[in-house]
Each structure stands twice: as structure tokens, then as C-alpha cells.
């Protein structure tokens, strides 16, 4: 969207470790929560022989063998974790205007999560050994983490360019973004391919949350109103919110598209340029007049 809308704000102090890939980002509007921690959100505004199944259910068609066509057979549950629709959590928001500096994200990050066995298997699949997770933006100005209910950063590893986070079945988690700059950023977040604000298939063109300068954004769950969210809880893939709504194809990943705000920004890169400015870049000898 190109018009100003609303944005959420939510800020708690937690440690965060994750790397973001720098990109380009324009748009207006963002949300801002009014509680402590604070967070801001940006937004613009059965026929044919088949058996009907509930949304998200996985079935396979098999031949009956008696000439009677095909019947639907349930497919075994997928292993590992997904994110379930958890209990209601109070998380009030307020609204604030935000003009994106460009239509594409300034940075993006994807955090793949699973149980311990799943993370080890994923690392082996990528052909590398797990290492302690520590990831930041290219200039180390923003960081992202998944934290548990007590605020402890979840363990994870980097492997083959992936950030792999270990979750526990039934455990609640939150997404934490820490801003170490003097600028505001808009964060469009998704879980299992679903937008955390409206629960629909995610798209970076939707509006997101605002994280203020030197502040921390905490995203507690799928937003259900201006005042509450449904907590993020790890659970079986079949029980995930995605599997029960749009499907489980993208279960196991948390995504963030980060947009910078239009206008001059005192970023780490800009401050570095100032600090290393050369007062005499072309010192040499005087030339005779022509």
C-alpha cells in the first residue's frame, strides 16, 4: 500500500542474536502499542469421487482396487514443530504514521525453528555442523531473536546460511527485534508463512510494527484485536495455526521484512563515513597557472 495507515508498537528489553541481509525500502503508516513493553504496527490501510476434509488436513488418493475409483487416506503426521494458536495475551497497541524510504525491504531475515532432533537433522541436510547461533544485520545495527516466556534467548545454530532455532513442544515464544540506531524501522513479520497481524498468507507489502530508536520490539503472538494476541506456542505440525487454516507447507519459519523510514538516517554506516572523512583527499603539489 502507498497511503499512510496504522502501525503497532511494543517494546521490552531482551537480548537478540540474528543476522539480516541488507536490501533496499516506501510506504506510509504504522501501529504502536500503548503498554510496556511497547510495540508499533504498520498497516495501510465434494463430488468426483473425492472426500471432503477439514482445512489443513493432508490426504492422499489411493486406488480401491475394486474398480470403484479412489478413496482418501490420511497422510502420516509431519515430524517436528509448528506454531499453534495459543492463549489470549493482553498486548495493547497504538497507531503512528510511517513513510517507507523505498518499496523494498532494507533488510530481511528468516529464522527456521524446530525441535532439537529436527534442527540437528536440518543442519546435517545442509552439510554442515551446528555452531552457536549469533546473527546480526550487516552493520550490526539491528538484531532478531526468539525468546521464551521468561525472556531467555532460545538456543540455535547457523548452518549453510540458515539460522536454526531450537524450540520445545508446548513452549511459548516471542519474536524480539532490538534497534541499536537513532532511526525508526517498520517490521513486517510472519510465522509459518502467515502474517502475524491478520493471519493471512504473508506479504511484505502489508504494514507491520514500528521499532523506535534504541528500543526493542516484542511480538507476542497472532494479533486478535487492538488489545490482545494469541500467544505463539510450539506444537505438533498438525496442530499448528497454519495447518488448521491455509496449510502446513511453510511451517517452521519466522520471517521479517525490515523497512527503513524516509529521510536522512544516522546509521552506523553513515557515522562511519563521517568518522573517516579525509580533510585533504587529494594532497599534492601546486600547479603553475595556465
Give helix % range: under 10%
Q: What string, H for helix and E for strand, traces the elements in order?
A: EEEEEEEEEHEEEEEEEEEEEH
Counting H and I runs of at least 4 residues, what is the number of helices? 2
Q: Which stretches of 5+ consecutive residues score pLDDT under 50?
A: 1-6, 10-29, 32-38, 43-64
Number of strands: 20
Structural class: mainly beta
Major sheet summary line: 8 strands, mixed
Whole-Å distance between the termini? Answer: 58 Å
What percentage of the residues does DSSP assign to strands (E)? 35-45%
Number of individual domains: 1
Mean pLDDT value: 73
Shape, per Cα inertia axes: elongated
The radius of gyration over CA amounts to 23 Å
Overview of the molecule:
The protein has 290 residues and is mostly beta strands. The protein has one domain. 6% of the residues lie in helices and 36% in strands. It has 2 helices and 20 strands. Strands 2, 9, 11, 12, 14, 15, 16 and 20 form an 8-stranded mixed β-sheet that branches. Strands 7, 10, 13, 17, 18 and 19 form a 6-stranded antiparallel β-sheet that branches. A hairpin with a 2-residue loop joins strand 14 (185-191) and strand 15. It starts with 5 loop residues before the first strand and ends in a 15-residue tail after the last helix. Mean pLDDT is 73; it is low at 1-6, 10-29, 32-38 and 43-64.
Short description:
With 290 residues, this protein is mainly β.
What's the structural blueprint in terms of helices and strands?
Layout: E1 6-9, E2 21-22, E3 30-32, E4 39-43, E5 59-63, E6 70-74, E7 81-90, E8 94-96, E9 107-114, H1 116-125, E10 142-148, E11 156-159, E12 162-166, E13 172-179, E14 185-191, E15 194-195, E16 209-211, E17 216-219, E18 221-223, E19 228-236, E20 253-260, H2 268-275
Amino acid at each position: 500500500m502507498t497511503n499512510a495507515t496504522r502501525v503497532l508498537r511494543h517494546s521490552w528489553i531482551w537480548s537478540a542474536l540474528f543476522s539480516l541481509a541488507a536490501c533496499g525500502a516506501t510506504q506510509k503508516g504504522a501501529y504502536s502499542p500503548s503498554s510496556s513493553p511497547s510495540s508499533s504496527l504498520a498497516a495501510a490501510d465434494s463430488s468426483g469421487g473425492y472426500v471432503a476434509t477439514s482445512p489443513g488436513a493432508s490426504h492422499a488418493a489411493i486406488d480401491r482396487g475394486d474398480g470403484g475409483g479412489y478413496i482418501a487416506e490420511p497422510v502420516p503426521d509431519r515430524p517436528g514443530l509448528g506454531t499453534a494458536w495459543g492463549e489470549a495475551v493482553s498486548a495493547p497497541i497504538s497507531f503512528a504514521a510511517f513513510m517507507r524510504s523505498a518499496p523494498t525491504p532494507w533488510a530481511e531475515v528468516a529464522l527456521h525453528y524446530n525441535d532439537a532432533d529436527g534442527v540437528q537433522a536440518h543442519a546435517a541436510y545442509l552439510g554442515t555442523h551446528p555452531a552457536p547461533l549469533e546473527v546480526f544485520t550487516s552493520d550490526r545495527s539491528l538484531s532478531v531473536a526468539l525468546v521464551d516466556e521468561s525472556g531467555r534467548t532460545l538456543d540455535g545454530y547457523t548452518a549453510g546460511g540458515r539460522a536454526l532455532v531450537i524450540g520445545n513442544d508446548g513452549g511459548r515464544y516471542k519474536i524480539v527485534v532490538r534497534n541499536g540506531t537513532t532511526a525508526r524501522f517498520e517490521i513486517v513479520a510472519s510465522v509459518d508463512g502467515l502474517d502475524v497481524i491478520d493471519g493471512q498468507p504473508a506479504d511484505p507489502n502489508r504494514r507491520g510494527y514500528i521499532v523506535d530508536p534504541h528500543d526493542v520490539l516484542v511480538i507476542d503472538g497472532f494479533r486478535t484485536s487492538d488489545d490482545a494476541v494469541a500467544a505463539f506456542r510450539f506444537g505438533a505440525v498438525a496442530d499448528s495455526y497454519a495447518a488448521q487454516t491455509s496449510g502446513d507447507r511453510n511451517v517452521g519459519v519466522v520471517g521479517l521484512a525490515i523497512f527503513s523510514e524516509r529521510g536522512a538516517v544516522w546509521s552506523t554506516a553513515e557515522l562511519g563515513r563521517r568518522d573517516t572523512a579525509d580533510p585533504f583527499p587529494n594532497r599534492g603539489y601546486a600547479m603553475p597557472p595556465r
